[in-house]
Structures are given as structure tokens and as C-alpha cells.
Amino acid sequence: MQTFVKGDAKWWQTATVYQIYPRSFMDGNGDGIGDLQGIISRLDYLQELGVDVIWLSPVYDSPNDDNGYDIRDYEAIMEEFGTMADFDVMLEELHKRGLKLVMDLVVNHTSDEHEWFVQSRSSKDNPYRDYYYWHPGKDGKEPTNWGSFFSGSAWEYDEKTAEYFLHLFSKKQPDLNWESPKVRQEVYKMMRFWLDKGVDGFRMDVINMISKVPGWPDGEKQPGQLYGDGTPFILNGPRIHEFLQEMNREVLARYDIMTVGEMPGATTDLAIQYTAPERKEVNMVFTFEHMDLDSAPGGKWNLKPLNLLDLKDNLTKWQTALHDKGWNSLYWNNHDQPRIVSRFGNDREHRVEAAKMLATCLHMMQGTPYIYQGEEIGMVNVQFTDLSDYRDIETLNMYRERLSQGYVHEDIMKSIYVKGRDNARTPMQWDDSENAGFTTGEPWIRVNPRYTEINAKQALADENSIFYHYQRLIALRKEMEIITFGEYRLLHRDHPAVFAYERVLGDEKLIVLCNFSSEPQELDDEELLAEMRQAEVLLENLERREASLSLRPYEAVVYYKK
Ligand code: NOJ
Fold it and tell me: With a 6 A CB cut-off, is 65 part of the ligand 1 pocket?
């Protein structure tokens, strides 16, 4: 087996990635929508933070049914974001600063306005017909009972040819048929187009959905549910490894790049298969398991408080299973998830400590960490009381569907406040001026009203800010091999409020203690205390005077011992 070796780290193993959601990052021309010139104007800020790689959510031409995750033209830039010339300048400016660029690769589906789909739907014998999944109805209904991830059926009837097409997401996002070798070759060609421009990798959108189980079986339908569960037939399907290995052979292996596959429903066993270097598929995956721990059965909108033991067990499982076998990505946030400080921390009196504690807990683990814009300043969830202030298609469709099922408005809003994707999509808070310095125009989505208190300008001016805590974590990863390669061991598994673990590499050790509660906590462990007394404090979020097993609310401390 080929494993990763100390002293020979790949660049993406010591890197920290920063995700930009371009629509909400920085508006350069005052139209209320973030754009490429806006990004260029903030590169110094990212350099100051010290991140190595930018992952850019889609900037391709799109009618924006799902904010760019519905692509109309893979080789053109969305007009609202700028031009290809702007893109080239951005890439050059990034590279000049030693930063790398990872693009979003959205190839499970296209927009229904993509030329391939326009052709495909035009007639049954069009050469593009089999670029998508077309199927006649079954007993006058959809071919299967599957629900789409954005509410409603996963099939849409098309009058023109009297057949249904498959769309796992919105009906403006028809699924590409990866069984067709022509589709795969088109995708590979497009990937080479971007790699030849000099981009440094891809984040692959729902990439473990590209192989579907043949035969179109119905999914299990739970009582009270409108649709059957299609996920057993679309996640990690029968040809997924073959497709990824082909993509690797034909494209990825020819460049020095990084790849991360977004993979809902990937277990640790599957993740090892996807990321083991000798299998030549992708470098790492995004798991969803830790993001599902605060959901009750029936999906993300059914709320359940997090039990810290579940989180410890889950992250520990990923840390140990992939060690020496594959590679982890580490994340709390992205454009689909609520803000972590509101979710697993505290966004009121302990916001600053909680944000630093969460960062510490994640960044001291093994893997490649991802920071989502605004996380580094502790941005928080938003509660718009008026539904019309929400923009996200997933949220709006869910609202309508639940209302029709008899849910009451207040309960639906509660789910949106806790889980809605727009929590992550309000504009980046740059300063305390109007619209948080994001735009001089009318922002496409309202700014979080807490921008006067939480913004980058304030963070840069305060040496104890969350921003500088992240800066230190990013720098430590580059300085200390133990963070990249050390073995992970969970400590005090049964403590209900403290997440404690150590990392061990040769005779070096890191001890990480994190209090996930707003109460003081205590560990009972004389041996650990003795070790802490011989160690130095590497990082802390509250000032410590002496080694102690007492932790203040949301306190985090890292000891280093050799
Ligand atoms: C996952 C993306 O992260 C999400 O934003 C998008 O809506 C779906 N895939 C569909 O592309």
C-alpha cells in the first residue's frame, strides 16, 4: 500500500483552503452582487490570513436557479461576475501571491438552459438525447417515486417528447447521463480547458451521484412522506470508482493539482476507497456525517440538539479510519451549512471564545482544513422574519411543500433559522459602514444586522480577534509536522462537554482540550495534568496561568510536549 509519508507531504496536505462564495464576497461595481473584481480587491486580506488555496464556488455562466450550481456554459464567466479577462487577472494575482485556485466542478447536472439540454429535449433522435436521463412515465406517473433534494419529484415531464427527465436537484438542473462515453469525454475536455489555464484543482459537486443504479427502482417511502427515498440508487453507484479512475487517468493525473469530492452518504470505508493514493481517484472527500448529527429522522429540517458524544465519536471514527490509508478534509462551514458558531458554539456572550474553540478543535486534527468566508471573523446565523428576504431555492421550495403538508409557519421558520443555507450566504461583513462595506448598491440578499459589531475591519484591528487565532492555526500547520502526520487519540470519550484528544508523532505530543459548553468544566486525570505540566502552551483562547484541568466556558487550549 502506498501511504503518505512524513517529510514528504503533498502541498495540499499542509495547506489550508478558504472558500469564496462569489455572489456574497465583495461587490466591485456597485450592482449589489459580488464579483471577480471584488475578489481581486480582497486578495491582500486573504494573504494576511495566511491561507494557501482558494476554492471558488461556481463563476460560470448560469441562469442562477441555484446560484451558479446550474451551469449554462462551462467555459464562460457569469456576466454578473465579470469577464474571462477578469478571471485571468484574478488567477494571475492569486498566483503572484503564492495562492492556488480550486474551481467548483459541477458535472452531476447542468442547467436546463445548457446547449446540450436544449438539444436533448428537442427530439428523441437528437444526438444529445442520451446526454441526460429520459424515461417514459410508469402507469401515467413519474418513472420512480423519488423526491428531489429541493422538494417535489425528481422527475419532470417534458411535453415536447412526452417523456420525463431526471433532476436530483431543481427542475432546472437536469442530471447528466454519465453512462454515455460522449458525456464523460465532454467533461474531461472542459476540465482540461481550466487546468490548461493554470487552475490548481477541483472541488467536485455531489460527485458520488454520477453513477446511478440501473433499472430505476422505487425508493422506500416512510409514513407521512410525499416521496420515496432514491438515495440508495444514486449515491456511490455501481460505476462510481470506474468513472473517477477514468477521470483521473484522462485528466487529473496529468497535472499537479488537488481534488476534493463532495460526497453525501460516503462512509469511512468508501472514503478510503475514494482517497487511497494507490487507487487514483480523488485526494479527499467532504463527508456529511458530522453535519447530520443535529438532524432528527426525516432530514435536515427536522431539528435535534447536538449531543457532543455523537460529534466526538464521529470525528474520531474519521480520524482513525483514514489515518495512513486515505486523507480527510476538515470543515465546519460552507455555503450550504449554517454558521458553526451559532450551531455548535455560542453566538452571544461567548461568541469570540466559542469561534476560536471550534477552530482549534478542528484545525488540530489530521486532514486539510477548509475555512468558509466569514468564519474567520465569527459570522453568525441570521433570522429574517419576512420569508421574502430569503433567496435560497432549497429553503423556499421546502417552505411551500411543508406548508402544503400542514406544518405551521412558525415551525418552518424555526427550521430555516437553524438550518437554512442563506445563513451562510448573507454578504461578507467587511466593516461597519452601510451594507457592511460589501456593496455601494442594494445587496442581492440582506446583510446580517450584526455587521456593526462583527466585521473584518474590527477583527484586523484587534490582536485578540478570531481572525488572528485562525492565522496562528494556519501557520502552525505549516510549521509542525505533527499536525499533518501525528496519530490521533480521543481522550475522555464519555465527558459530556469536553472534547479532548491528543496527537502523537514519535516522541512529540499535542494535547487539545476544548470545552463545548457555557459552563466551567473539569477533567479528572492526574496523569494528563502531569504531562501538561511538562508541556508548553502552544495556543489558547483565554489566558492561562498554570496547567490545570479546569476549563472555562468555551475554553480551548493546546499543549505541546517533546
Ligand atoms: C451541492 C452544492 O454545494 C449545493 O450548493 C448545490 O445546491 C447542490 N450541490 C447542487 O449542485
Answer: no
pTM of the model: 0.98
Q: Is 104 exposed, middle or buried (0-12, 13-18, 19+ CB in 10 A)?
A: buried
Nearest ligand 1 atom to alpha carbon 106: 11
Q: Is the CB of 344 under 6 A from ligand 1?
A: no
Cβ–Cβ under 8 Å, residues 493 and 312: yes
Question: Do the strands 201-204 and 521-522 form a parallel or antiparallel pair, or are they unpaired?
Answer: unpaired
Atom of ligand 1 nearest to the CA of 109: 11
**Cα 302–chain centre separation:** 20
Query: Could you tell me if the CB of 66 is within 6 A of ligand 1?
Result: yes
Query: Cα separation of 243 and 265, whole Å?
Result: 18
Give the CATH number of domain 483-561.
2.60.40.1180
CATH 3.90.400.10 assigned to domain 115-166? The reply is yes
**Ligand 1 atom closest to 334 (CA):** 3
Does the domain made of 181-327 have the CATH classification 3.40.50.300?
no
Rounded to an integer, what distance in angstroms lies between the CA atom of residue 34 and that of residue 147? Answer: 32
Q: Is the CB of 128 under 6 A from ligand 1?
A: no
Q: How far apart are CA 430 and CA 438, in angstroms?
A: 6
Per-residue pLDDT 10s for the chain (562 aa) are 455 666 788 999 999 999 999 999 999 999 999 999 999 999 999 999 999 999 999 999 999 999 999 999 999 999 999 999 999 999 999 999 999 999 999 999 999 999 999 999 999 999 999 999 999 999 999 999 999 999 999 999 999 999 999 999 999 999 999 999 999 999 999 999 999 999 999 999 999 999 999 999 999 999 889 999 999 999 999 999 999 999 999 999 999 999 999 999 999 999 999 999 999 999 999 999 999 999 999 999 999 999 999 999 999 999 999 999 999 999 999 999 999 999 999 999 999 999 999 999 999 999 999 999 999 999 999 999 999 999 999 999 999 999 999 999 999 999 999 999 999 999 999 999 999 999 999 999 999 999 999 999 999 999 999 999 999 999 999 999 999 999 999 999 999 999 999 999 999 999 999 999 999 999 999 999 999 999 999 999 999 888 999 999 999 999 999 9
Answer yes or no: is the C-beta of 104 below 6 A from any ligand 1 atom.
no
Which atom of ligand 1 is nearest to 394's Cα?
7
* CA geometry: angle 245, 246, 249, nearest 5 deg: 85
Rounded distance from Cα 270 to ligand 1 centre (Å): 21
CA 454 to ligand 1 center in whole angstroms: 27
Atom of ligand 1 nearest to the CA of 168: 10
Annotated catalytic residues are: 205, 262
Nearest CA to ligand 1 atom 5: 336
Q: Quick check: CB of 336 below 6 Å from ligand 1?
A: yes
CA 421 to ligand 1 center in whole angstroms: 10
In the chain, domain spans: 11-105+329-479, 115-166, 181-327, 483-561
| Ligand 1 neighbourhood includes 194 CB (under 6 angstroms) | no
**In 480-525, where does DSSP find H-type helix?**
481-485
Length of the chain counted residue by residue = 562
CA of 262 to the centre of ligand 1 (A): 9
Domains 11-105+329-479 and 181-327 share a fold: yes
For ligand 1, is residue 422 a contact (CB within 6 Å)? no
Write out the CATH class of domain 11-105+329-479.
alpha beta
Closest by CA position to 239, among listed 275, 209, 263: 209
